[in-house]
Design a protein that fits this description.
It is a single chain. By secondary structure, this protein is of the alpha/beta class. Helices cover 48% and strands 12% of the residues. Strands 1-4-5-6-7-8-9 form a seven-stranded parallel sheet. A two-stranded antiparallel sheet has the order 2-3. Helix 4 packs parallel to helix 7. The two termini are 19 Å apart.
Length: 338
């Protein structure tokens, strides 16, 4: 039997609105905090047994319609030898930010041999998950490039945009490099059994539509094209990307993820004949249950107009979320009358 998640992603009739949550693997779960004790983030992502356990935890607890592979968007860079670490409370920090063409050329291309633990973790998961599909994931070129150029998280992306506008040859080389790494990373996951992929562009909302189309979209399209050649549904998600939704769909997405700032009905009008994913405000799980479910019902109703609708939050699960609320939300969406 095909899962409701995969049916919705392909625009086919579903038995119920499928639901999963970005960052469901980890963060708010006590069992996650327990297994991660004393283990660094990147170290966790390189341990196939730990990745398997963490990815399975929310599926066991919530009964969601899909699992999301537990990893980090900078892991492929670490795998090819970029000197970086994930600092608690800060995020990815790169020891030597990329500035020149030589810096770009010094970054090796990713091969499957760089990430044997990813192949093993995915194979373990697919055998454990049964009919629940696994979503593979990678960071989109712009977001990963921003970490490499800024040296860590940034609110303004000033150095990133300075390179984009002022050194377009270096920018193009860097984006091509990252696109190749991301595409290979997704190919490894799908080759091992992942049923769908999601490309996360966390920082793309910092761009105007014209700049996105000129400097970013061709590179994201290259990643999505290679994933599409594998025959799996492709989800494309960004934060603060209301004005980019049409372009993000046109880059090659089967499903466009919508953050909570954009009414789902508006997003459906912008993405054309595509499935949408989203988009409950992650903070609504802190409201009384009846308030949360009333808003969820509005989103499910709005999603009926789309080619397909996968229910999700409009961004990741907040670490202090009560897991019991996510369980109630999952059951509410899955049992909501068709």
């Amino acid at each position: 039997m095909t899962s409701a998640f995969l049916l919705a992603a392909r625009g086919e009739p579903v038995p119920h609105t499928p639901v999963w949550f970005m960052r469901q693997a980890g963060r708010s779960l006590p069992e996650y905090l327990e297994v991660r004790k004393g283990v660094g983030m990147l170290e966790s992502c390189m341990d196939p047994d730990l990745v398997t356990e963490i990815t399975l935890q929310p599926v066991r607890r919530y009964g969601v319609d899909a699992a999301i592979f537990f990893s980090d968007i900078v892991l492929p860079l670490k795998a090819v030898g970029v000197d970086l670490d994930i600092k608690p409370g800060i995020g990815p920090v790169v020891a030597k930010p990329v500035e020149t063409l030589a810096d770009v050329e010094a970054i090796p291309d990713l091969t499957a041999e760089h990430v044997p633990y990813i192949d093993r973790a995915v194979r373990n998961l697919v055998s454990e998950l049964g009919e629940t599909p696994l979503i593979g994931f990678a960071g989109a070129p712009f977001t990963v490039a921003s970490y490499l150029v800024e040296g860590g998280p940034s609110k303004e992306h000033a150095r990133t945009k300075a390179m984009m506008f002022g050194a377009p040859d270096v920018w193009d080389a860097l984006m091509r490099k990252i696109a190749g790494i991301a595409a290979t990373y997704l190919e490894v996951q799908v080759g091992a059994g992942a049923s769908a992929v999601q490309l996360f562009d966390s920082w793309a909302g910092a761009l105007t539509p014209a700049d996105y189309e000129a400097f970013v979209m061709p590179h994201s399209a290259r990643v999505l094209e290679r994933a599409g050649a594998l025959g799996v549904p492709r989800i494309h998600f960004g934060v603060g990307t209301s004005n980019l939704l049409g372009l993000m769909g046109a880059a090659g997405a089967d499903v466009v993820g919508v953050d909570w700032r954009t009414p789902l009905g508006d997003a459906i009008d912008r993405v054309g004949d595509r499935c949408v994913q989203g988009n409950l405000d992650p903070t609504l799980v802190f409201a009384p249950t009846e308030v949360m479910t009333a808003r969820a019902a509005e989103i499910v109703e709005a999603g009926r107009r789309a080619k397909g609708h996968i229910f999700n939050l409009g961004h990741g699960v907040i670490p202090s979320t009560d897991p019991d609320q996510l369980k109630r939300l999952t059951e509410f969406v899955q049992t909501y009358p068709r």
